[in-house]
Predict the structure.
Amino acid sequence: MLKKILKFSKNLFIFFAIFGIVFSNVSFYAASFMLETYIKGSNIVDRAWHLQKDSNVVDKFSSFRNLTEKLKIQETYAATSGQVYPTLGVTIAESPWLDNNWTNPTNIYSDNAATAYVIAASYDNGDQTYVLKATGFDFSAIPDGSTINGVTARMNAWYRSGQGSGAMDLCQLLDINKAKVGTNQCATQVALTTTNTTIITKGSTVDNWGNALDTTWIKDPDFGIAIGIKATAANADVDVDYVTLEIDYTPPADTTPPTPDPMTFATAPNNTSATQIDMTATTATDATTPPVSYYFALDTSVCTPANVGTGAADSGWQSGTTYSDTGLGVNKCYGYKVKARDSVGTPNETGYSGITTLYTSANTPGTPTLGSPTTSTLALTNAENSNPASNPTTNFAVQVVTTSDGTWLNQWVDATGNPSATAVWLTDAQLDALVLQGLQASTLYGVKVKARNNDTDETALSAEGQGTTSAPSATVTASSIGTQTVNMDSGTTAQYIGAAFRFQQDSGTAVNITALTLTEAGGITFNNTGSSEVSNVSLSYKTADAGTCATGGETTVGNGTLNASDSVTWSAISIPATLSTNYTCVYVRIDLVQGAVYPNGGDTIDLKINASGDFTVDGGANKAGTFPVDPSGVATVLPNVTSITYPITSPLNGARIGQSITINGAGFGTTCDGTNNRVTIGGVGNVISCTGTTFSNTTITITNFQYSSGDSYGGATALLVRVGATDDNASQDMYVYPDITDTTNPTAYTNAAREYSASDSQ
C-alpha cells in the first residue's frame, strides 16, 4: 500500500511540475533539462505510447491541451512535430550489415501489424540484417529557421517466439544523401523480446544524435533513420512494424504581425437592427506563431458628437473573426476598427483597419392613425416608436396602401398633404401636423409609414392604420319667390312684405336653419337706436311647399331682434329644411309703427339675405345660394288717413272757406310742399293751399281752409292725402260748403232757378 502511495505522489508531482511550467515563465529549456533524467529513467515515452492506445487517456490529454490553448499562454516555447511516420523504406547492404535482406521494407510506414521482416533459415547467431532505411518524413510544418533541439526515434520491433532471438544494433540518423551520420544510438545492442508491442525509444527532446541539425536537413526527403538487427541465436526471425521520428524545436523569434497589416474588414460593420451592429474581420494568417486573435475597437471620432449613441463596447481579444455589438441606441452613430495579433509571447499586432462609421437602424414605426374626418380630409398621427426626433432627426414617409380612390392608391403623402409618386421624407412633427387633402367622401383610406436613419437606411413599412372620410354634407340652398312690390299702410301691424324666402336641402338627413339675419336696404328706419319706424318683425314658415309659398298655414317662429345696422336677427331657432324638390317657405311680417313713431308715406322696405353667413344650419350642412338673396321690388309705405275732424258734419261732412280741418292717421311726418306732400280735393288740380296747413306724424291740420272759385266742390271720396309722392290708397269724403254773403233780386229769377233768400216769403 505504501508503495502505491509513493508512486501516486511521484506521478502527481510530475503532473504539477509540467502544469506549472505550462502556466509560468520558467524557461522551457531549463524545465526540459530537469525532466530529461526522469523521462529516460522511467521510460515515460514508452509508457505514453501505450497510453495513447487508451482513447480515454488521449481524450483527457487533448482536453488539457485545448485548455492551455484557450487560455492562450503565449510565451516563447519549444514545440514538437509529434510522431511522424516515413513514406519511404529501403533495404541496403552496408558493412557490417550484409547478411540478410529485409522483406517488405515499405511495411514500416504505419502501425498496422504488417511488418518488414527477416526470417531466412541462414539468419543465425551473429548474422546482421541489411540496413533498413526509413526516409520521406514530412516536417514541413516546422518553421524555417527553427532551432532543432532534439530527435526522438521510436521503433516497434521484436523476434518471433521459438525462432531464435535478436538485438537491435543499429539506429542512426541519415543525412541529405541518405548516409548514416552521427551517433549510433544502438551501438550498445538493445535486446528484442517476443512482445510485439515493444517500443525501442532512442534520442530525446535535447539529443541531436551528434549532428548539427537544421530545418534544411530535416525537411530533406532523404533525411531519416537507419536500423539494423543482429541475430543472437540460431535461426532467428525478426519483425519491424513501424518507425517514427519526433523532432523538438524552437521556432525562430517572431517579430512579424499577422497578414494583412494593417487589418481590414471582410464585411464592414453593418446595422442588422436598431440596437445591433455586426462586423467580420478579414481572416488573418500567421505562419510562425498562430493562432491569430482579433480585437474590434469602438471609435466614434468621425461621428457628429451630438449623434453618438451609448451602449457600445470593444470586443476584447477573441479568436473569432466576427463581432456583434448589441444594446445600442436607435438611429445613433457608432464607429469601429479592427486589428489582429499572433500568439508569440509578446504578441505582434497589426495596425488598425480604417474606421467604419455608421448609424444603427431606425425602428419600424408603429401603426399610424387617421382621424378628424371631413368629406375631403383626414388628419394623420404618426407613431414614431422611440425613433429620435433630434440628434439625429429620424425621417418618415407615408404611403396610402388601401383605398378605392385611384388618385391616392399607392401614392406617398407630401408635406402639404397631397399625393406624390415618390416618397417624401418628413419629420415626426411634420407628420403629426399633416392633413391628407383632396380625398373622396365616404371612402376608406389605409396608410403605412416607414422610417429611415441618418444613413438613409430604410425600415420596412409599418402596420396599416385606416380612416374613413365623412359622408357628403347636405347643402341647403337659399332663394326667394314673389315680389316685395306691395303697398303697406303706415301704422298697420302684421304686414307681409310680399315676397317669401325659400330653403331647400339636396340630400342626407334633414337639417335645421338655426339662425337668420335679414338686412333692410330700403328707406325706412329699421334699427334698434330708438328711432326705428317698425316693430314686431315676425318670422313664420311652412315646410314641404311646392315652391309658390302662398301665405296661410304657417308656423310662427317669433319676433327677431333689431340690430343697429338696419337688420334683424332670429337666433336659436329651428326651421326644418325641406329635402328634394320641395321647399321650406319663410315669411316676414312687420308692424309699421314703433311706439308713437310711424314710417312716412313713400318710405320703402327691401329685405334680403346678404351672404351665406347670414343664416346657419346644423348637421354640418353646406350653404348655397345666389347672394344676396334679394326678392324683386320693394314694399312701399302709404300715408294712412283713418279719420277727419270736420267743422260741418251735417248734412254732409265738409267745411267752408276759412274753417279748420284735422286729418288723422299715420305717415304724415313731413312738410306740405303742394306737390309731393299735399292734400287735394276733387282731383290733382285742386290742391289745398299749404298756407295754414301743417303735416305731423299722425295729423294734418288745415287751420284756414282756402278754396278758390272754380275749384271742385268736393264730394264723396274727394279728399286725397299724398306724402312722399305716395298717395293714400283710400280717398275721404269732403264737401265744400259755399259761404253766402249776398243774394240777387229774387224777382229776376224763377222760383226754380234762384237761391233761397231770407227775405223771401212764400
Q: What stands out?
A: Residues 22-67 form one domain.
